[in-house]
UniProtKB/TrEMBL annotation:
Domain of life: Bacteria
Species this protein is from: Flavobacterium plantiphilum
The name this protein goes by in its record: Dihydrodipicolinate synthase family protein
Enzyme Commission no: 4.1.3.3, 4.2.1.41, 4.3.3.7
Enzyme class: lyase
Length: 306
């Protein structure tokens, strides 16, 4: 999932009705909002989607719904590995690939126990690839159930199979990213960075794009970064955007994804604050912080004129 243009692949939210059922009408509207903002792909059925709180059937239904709405406009990836043996994970990988997505994402922390060695992890990955012939895949260093960060050598090995075209990096380490990019030469492969603190530096180092929760607040802003990161005439604007994102990282992570859903409400999306995850209290203080965030963003948006 790479091309000459840097791109933004948002980690999609799952809208719910207030009774906890999935709100497919709003999922359609949310998908269309992402597309209108200029994204170059979508990551459905991910941690932001509350994938661990969805049933297997719901994971498939949500992903298929997104595929149907997008109708080929941009590539779509979705998680395919959850609890169970490697064989069981391979079975679901096949099922979710059958929804019409472009690649199945493998969660590094679910392909080996936290106490397992790197050798066990690598063996399990190759076993899963052998059990899912012909299916394009990618990796996500998801923090749940624990974060297993791939080394550059591991990523090189996996990409060299010809089966791995995507990597969502959550190492939070620009040197790790540069090391990975230095050894992976497949033009079909793209590394997407989740950490906004070094977003611009990562793009300049060769990352294919960004995949971050901030895009569930202001997707157009992340698209703007990808479009302008290397424009020397916009050096001051880029510095202002970077500062805005760094200064407000705490606000955007607090009781997430509720805060993101509330922020989307403020821009007119009819999405409920309901979440199946236990994330804490959406208190008046948190609400006020998001209101202030929106005010700051509006000012920034006027300065950038996009």
């Amino acid at each position: 999932m790479n091309n000459s243009k840097k791109g933004f692949i948002p980690v999609m939210l799952t809208p719910f009705n207030n009774d906890g059922s999935i709100d497919y009408k709003t999922l359609t509207a949310l998908t269309e909002l992402y597309l209108k903002s200029g994204v170059t792909g979508l990551f459905a059925n991910c941690l932001s989607s509350e994938m661990f709180e969805l049933s297997e059937a719901e994971r498939l239904q949500v992903t298929k719904h997104v595929v149907d709405v997008v109708a080929g406009q941009v590539p779509i990836v979705a998680t395919g590995t959850f609890e169970g043996t490697i064989s069981e994970q391979a079975d679901f990988t096949k099922k979710i690939y059958g929804t019409g997505i472009d690649a199945v994402i493998l969660i590094s922390g679910l392909l080996a126990k936290e106490t397992d060695s790197d050798a066990v992890f690598v063996d399990n990955v190759h076993q899963l690839l052998d059990l899912t012939p012909g299916i394009p895949t990618g990796f996500y260093e998801c923090p749940v159930p624990y974060k297993r960060v791939l080394t550059a050598a591991q990523l090189e090995d996996f990409v060299n199979t010809g089966r791995v075209i995507y990597h969502k990096d959550t190492s939070l380490d620009i040197n790790q990213i540069k090391a990975k990019l230095s050894v992976v030469k497949n033009p079909e492969f793209g590394l997407y960075d989740a950490y906004m603190v070094h977003a611009i530096e990562s793009l300049k180092a060769g990352s294919a794009g960004l995949s971050c929760i901030q895009g569930n607040f202001f997707p157009e802003l992340i698209v703007w970064i990808c479009d302008n990161y290397n424009d020397t005439s916009k050096k001051e604007e880029l510095a202002a955007v970077q500062q805005f994102l760094e200064s407000n990282m705490g606000v955007m992570h607090d009781v997430y994804p509720i805060v993101a859903k509330y922020a989307l409400q403020k821009r007119g999306l009819p999405i409920s604050n309901f979440t199946r995850r236990e994330v804490g209290d959406f208190s008046p203080i948190v609400k006020y912080a998001v209101d202030q965030l929106q005010t700051e963003y509006d000012m920034l948006q006027n300065e950038l004129s996009f």
